[in-house]
Amino acid sequence: MSSAARSTVLVAGSANLDFVVRATHVPAPGETVLGRGFSTFPGGKGANQAVACARAGGVPTRMLLAVGEDDFAAPIEASLLDAGVALSTVRDPALPTGTAFICLADTAENAITVAPGANLGLREEHLPALEGVGWLLLQLETPVPTITAYARRARAAGLKVALNAAPAQVLSDALLALLDVLIVNEGELDVVAGHPPDLATGLARVPVPCVIVTLGARGCLARVNGEVLLQPGFRIDPLDTTAAGDTFCGALIAALADHQPMAEALLAATAASALTCTRLGAQASIPTRAEVQALLADPTRVPDAAAHAALAAGCAQ
Q1: Residue 6 has pLDDT above 70, yes or no
Q2: What are the binding positions for ATP in this chain (predicted)?
Q3: Residue 189 and residue 40: Cα distance in Å, rounded?
Q4: What is the DSSP letter of 94?
Q5: pLDDT at 5
Q6: What is the pTM of this model?
Q7: pLDDT of residue 252 exceeding 70
Q8: Would you state the pLDDT for residue 311?
Q9: Is 279 annotated to bind ligand?
Q10: Where are the domains of the chain?
Q11: What is the mean pLDDT of the chain?
């Protein structure tokens, strides 16, 4: 199979319609906060990552998703198609399309509650043919037994398998053994690695060839076959951090599918994630590849040696 054909990414995962309320702050338990605005946006970790692969990463992208037979499905599918994602859609008449309820604070932080709906109906037999696909990208908003089955079939077919372990949960050794890349944030690494005392220990504990930890505005840290790579974050004025992590995942796997070295993939994914934080919404906020490349071409905005040194010092503590 040619290298061009192997660049295709298949994302199998969740698709939701996000209901977003803007407010001064995220409510504490028992607190009622008066919101200031309401919007709906297509979202879901799987769908967000598929859009990021296609739009920010610029690689051929397919997605396996499940939706209900309701009005919420239409804007999700339209957003994916608009981004250039080819769809394999499972329609479940017994379950509603997945939804997420998001409170977005003026600080750009958010609180999210997900009602998975049809996402829980994805089964092993729904995985489409893998011919021409080089990478399979998964998340944890669909059933873990299904994810494990997809990863097993992908590895048997010679694909690379990446998992974004979000939302956080303990992962079996059997699933970890099927992965080429694991992407987590600090909280997810804490769960997956069994509450390590520090980042370095957590990275060392996870038996996956490549483990990447996103660190929010600080950037990311990766262990790749024993080598540690650091990528500082870009300085931005955040508006909405929704889908920042998903954009990182999609842009990263797109870069790897495009045969870029890991250091370059981390840089591109961090840039794409930063741009996402400057806009409202989930998929609506994901930048184009041209926008990512423009940011990378601006020497005044690319993290410098001092930023690398600061991140290294912070990760060593």
Answers
A1: no
A2: 185, 214-219, 245-246
A3: 31
A4: T
A5: 46
A6: 0.93
A7: yes
A8: 86
A9: yes
A10: 5-316
A11: 93
> pLDDT tens across 263-306, in order?
999 999 999 999 999 998 888 899 999 999 999 999 888 888 88
Grouping H, G, I as helix, E, B as strand and the rest as coil, residue 213 is: strand
Annotated binding-site residue? 141 = yes
pLDDT at 102 exceeding the cut of 80: yes
Are the beta carbons of 150 and 229 closer than 8 angstroms?
no
Query: Which residue is it, tokens 């040696």?
Result: 305
- Burial (CB < 10 A; 0-12, 13-18, 19+), residue 301, is middle
Query: Looking at the domain that runs over 5-316, which CATH code has it been given?
Result: 3.40.1190.20
98-105 and 8-12: which strand pairing? unpaired
Q: Is 44 annotated as a binding residue?
A: yes
What are the start-end ranges of the H helices in the chain? 45-51, 73-82, 144-156, 173-176, 186-192, 199-205, 244-257, 262-276, 289-296, 305-316
- The pLDDT assigned to 56 comes to 96
Angle 289-296/262-276 helices, nearest 10 degrees?
110
- Look at the alpha carbons of 243, 246, 248, 251 in this order and tell me if their dihedral is positive or negative: negative
Question: Is omega for the bond preceding 167 within 30 degrees of 0, making it cis?
Answer: yes
Q: Give the position of tokens 């996103």.
A: 214
Contacts of residues 221-229 at CB distance under 8 Å and 24 or more positions apart, as own/partner, are 221/311, 221/315, 222/262, 222/266, 224/262, 228/200, 228/203, 229/262, 229/263, 229/266
Structure tokens at 16: 């939701």
Q: Give the residue numbers annotated as catalytic, written as ranges.
A: 246
pLDDT at 303: 87
DSSP class of residue 239 equals S
Q: Is the pLDDT of residue 316 over 90?
A: no
For residue 3, the 8-state DSSP code is T
The DSSP H or E segment spanning 92 is strand 86-92
Helices (H) and strands (E) in the chain — how many of each? 10, 13
Token pair 């996956």 is found at 208
